[in-house]
Amino acid sequence: MPYLTVDYSSRLAGAFDACAFVKDLHPLVVEESGTSGVCKTLLRPAETWAGDGMSREAVFVHVEVGLMPGRPAAQKARLSEGVLALLAKHLLVADGGEERVCCSVEVRDLGTSYRLSPSAR
């Protein structure tokens, strides 16, 4: 039952179709994680963000994948690499252009306090 969050710069409108990305992301996560659950994804476009040495106008995509505990680090690393490769296919930003996109992925274990309501099953 992977839980995914995709935070991305709203300045990517026209260069990043988040819904098309998610359509391809779900099967990748299910296959690479070995889950039998259904992916649940939250899309969060952001107007601005701040980071050391980066302008507030910088563009980014960050994907977080929360999985039930028990998968080895190597499996999570393969999933992270797969998500980055998929992002590259879905970002229509020209190479060598002025727009640089900072892409990142974190595959993590859901905490021991994680619960799913019975009505959601």
Can you identify the CATH class? Alpha Beta
Task: Round the Cα radius of gyration to an integer and report it.
Answer: 15 Å
- Termini, distance in Å? 10 Å
How many domains would you count in the coordinates?
Answer: 1
Could you explain the architecture of this structure?
- By secondary structure, the protein is of the alpha/beta class.
- It has one domain (3-120): 2-Layer Sandwich (Macrophage Migration Inhibitory Factor).
- Helix content is 28%, strand content 26%.
- The protein is built from two helices and four strands, in the order E-H-E-E-H-E.
- The chain has a four-stranded mixed β-sheet, with helices on one face.
- The longest helix is centred in the last third of the chain and has 18 residues, at 73-90.
- The N and C termini lie close together (10 Å).
- The model has no long low-confidence stretch (mean pLDDT 88).
Summed up, what is this model?
This protein has 121 residues and is of the alpha/beta class. It has two helices and four strands, in the order E-H-E-E-H-E. Helix 1 packs antiparallel against helix 2.
